[in-house]
Amino acid sequence: MDPLKHLTQKQIDYCMECGLCTGSCPVSRELSNFSPRQMIKQVLLDLESDLMNGREIWACLSCAACSERCPVEIDFPEFISARRQQARDAGNVPQESHHGVLQTIAGLQTREVNQQRTYWAREAGVFADTGDVFYFVGCLPFFDVTFRYLNLSPLDTARSVLTLLNKMGVEPVISDHERCCGHDALWCGDHSTFRRLAELNLEVIRSSGAKTVVFSCPEGYVTFKKYYPQHVGELPFEVLHMTEFLSRELPNAGVSFQSSSNRTVTYHDPCRLGRLAGVYDPPRQLLESLPDTVLVEMERNRQYALCCGTSAWMECSSCSKAIQVERIEEAGQTGAQTLITACPKCQIHLSCARSAMDSDIEIIDLYAYLAMRLTTE
Amino acid sequence: MRCKKVIEETREILRLLGIDERRLRLKWISASEGMVFAEEIHDFVQQLQTLGLNPLKTDADPILDLPEKKSS
């Protein structure tokens, strides 16, 4: 048996059917037939084939809102993930969003590609081929093309990160050979693609000589930190999220920020950074360190934050939209003019939903917001 | 125009992946322009033959393999 599956099997034996999971699940509120509690019960009653053949296995956002409250600490995302590979092998596959282009790109990256993905960095700042700090850019260059129709430029995140790092005197490694971290392949049950991407990324980072790898994307971060060691062994370098790196290094780096007119902001915790990796304070510290900035919290924040409605580029539905609309309305109720996101996918999903809403809240990426506020000499 | 935009974006993705952009071509040809169509395809095939096999192709290829023709 898969060791992960064995672990979750042991966990679910403790399920006492209290239903807190289903009561906490944002998907269950929209899709009445979706119930984490029922899914666990199906497995306990040896009705696993129902779960394997149904669509529910793909509807889970793996946002971990249920696990956060589970009194016996069942890791529901892990429970789902362990079974998705089996479901996929049996021919039950997820409905891929955006015509599957992002899954196709990740699949192609398992081959001997000769990528040209650092053009933006040459214009935005200084970087190197080898060095101590590796900036893992993730899928931003591809998102920049795919989500142009939303009037977004996800590469602004990467440009802002490079600007901030350069200001701090850091010239990070940015590589043309970097691959997708494999997060989406893993959550789509495609473990062979995931492993191949992980191996290739480790090779690229090893050859750069980096001792620390920093991520602006929470998915890349949690995938390296939590899932690479599980699947491909211990990593020979330190893994840090950019908000951890910046909140640690910025105060002593002699970088100053200026005041701005949009001063009241609210912060949306990405599931991957918050509940899955436990990083809640660093992004808040960064925002609060800006002059005249007031951070107001949404009603559901930190470990209770609402997910952005879709994960791993699959199963985007009216349920996803309903969750996104709910989140934007919640942000609006704080009175903030700006909603800060720290995950490119949260920014894309919330911006997509907002484009069809009557809301004037601005959705800005955390790093773009910080770079915007840098003091200009 | 939407098609033109999608093709341009696809070209950008090919560039990012390091796949030769000449493997993708867009031409507007009317249904009445049979000769133009034939010439274009002939030219495209010749170009693809010069470029050779797709370097990303592998033996077990779920993405790029065309489905086998059914014998009638």
Give the structure's gist in a few sentences.
The complex is a heterodimer of chains A (377) and B (72). By secondary structure, chain A is an alpha/beta fold. Chain A has helices at 3-12, 20-24, 26-30, 36-44, 48-53, 56-59, 65-69, 76-89, 101-108, 119-124, 140-146, 155-167, 183-187, 191-208, 218-232, 242-249, 281-288, 318-333, 344-354, 366-372; strands at 133-136, 212-215, 238-241, 264-268, 294-295, 338-341, 362-365.
Structure description:
- The complex is a heterodimer of chains A (377) and B (72).
- Chain A is α/β, with parallel strands linked by helices and 377 residues long.
- Chain A is 48% helix and 7% strand.
- Chain A has three domains: 87 residues, Orthogonal Bundle (Fumarate Reductase Iron-sulfur Protein, Chain B, domain 2); 153 residues, no CATH class; 119 residues, 3-Layer(aba) Sandwich (Rossmann fold).
- Chain A is globular.
- The model of chain A has no long low-confidence stretch (mean pLDDT 93).
- By secondary structure, chain B is mainly alpha-helical.
- Chain B has a domain of 26 residues.
- Chain B contains two helices and no strands.
- Chain B is flat.
- Chain B starts with a helix and ends in a 21-residue tail after the last helix.
- The mean pLDDT of chain B is 85.
- Classes of the chains: A alpha/beta (377), B mainly alpha (72).
- Chains A and B meet through helix 9 and helix 11 of A and helix 1 of B.
